[in-house]
Amino acid sequence: MPHEHNHGHCGEECHDHDIPEAQGHRDNLYTHIDRDNVVALNAENGNGPEVVKPWHERLDEEVYLESDADDQMVIRIPFTGSVKLRALLLKVGPGEQTPAKVSLVTQFGNIDHLDFNEISERKPTQEFNVPQGREIGEYHVMAAKFPAATSITLFFPASQGADTTRVYYVGFLGQWTARKTEPVITVYESRANPADHPKIKGIHGAMQMP
């Protein structure tokens, strides 16, 4: 079975070691992903949720997304609450179908539906080079950049030489917090009640309503 590992190229937040089996369950965010609203753009054989798999299916290569018109792909992944992200998990490839890099664009609050033009013009929250390999890649993010994300969009701008890009598995590690919503109570006044408003003296001493 392939070994999962971190990639030393992804910055100070990364460490080179195997991913413990238990770690995938301890802070894996799979159950907090809103899978019904995951969206993939330029995917030939799926809509997006196919690659958001539970931990025990992470090595499955029968189900995947492959780009269609060219080698670019966008996958937008909303959460059911706020997420303090620790790491991105990816299984991609094989070979030249591996994306050259992955850009993470974070959204807070209202979710933007980013298309290719918008996401290519927006500065990524963080991005990583992606090495070729059949294992699960763990990409540690800078936690300060992902304190309370409600949605993360992954942008794969190009393959490593193939006409298409292929993605088998997308996962996240981190901490989830339920979304806090408080009801907004608004009282509308159908007709002004004179007793509720202060009276103001007019220029001749008469009492006038404001």
What topology does this entry show?
Elements lengths: L4 E2 L16 H4 L12 E3 L23 E2 L6 E20 L8 E7 L8 H6 L4 E4 L7 E4 L8 E8 L9 E13 L21 E2 L5 E2 L2
Parallel strand pairs: 1-7
Antiparallel strand pairs: 2-4, 3-9, 4-7, 4-8, 4-9, 5-6, 5-8, 10-11
Overview of the structural elements:
With 210 residues, this protein is mainly beta. It has a single domain (5-208), classed as Jelly Rolls (Sandwich). Helices cover 5% and strands 32% of the residues. Strands 1, 2, 3, 4, 5, 6, 7, 8 and 9 form a 9-stranded mixed beta sheet that branches. A two-stranded antiparallel sheet has the order 10-11. Residues 1-5, 8-22 and 197-205 have low confidence and may be disordered.
Which terms would index this structure?
single chain, 210 residues, mainly beta, Jelly Rolls, nine-stranded mixed β-sheet, two-stranded antiparallel ribbon
CATH homology superfamily name: PITH domain
Mean pLDDT: 80
CATH A-level architecture: Sandwich
What class do helices, strands and sheet pairing give? mainly beta
- Give the percentage of residues in beta strands: 25-35%
Kindly give the count of domains: 1
Largest sheet: 9 strands, mixed
Indicate the overall shape: globular
CATH class reads Mainly Beta
Series of secondary-structure elements, N-terminal to C-terminal: EHEEEEHEEEEEE
Query: Would you give the CATH topology?
Result: Jelly Rolls
Q: What is the radius of gyration?
A: 24 Å
Fraction of helical residues: under 10%
Terminus-to-terminus distance? 79 Å
Quick one: how many beta strands? 11
Parts with pLDDT < 50 across at least 5 consecutive residues: 1-5, 8-22, 197-205
Total of helices: 2
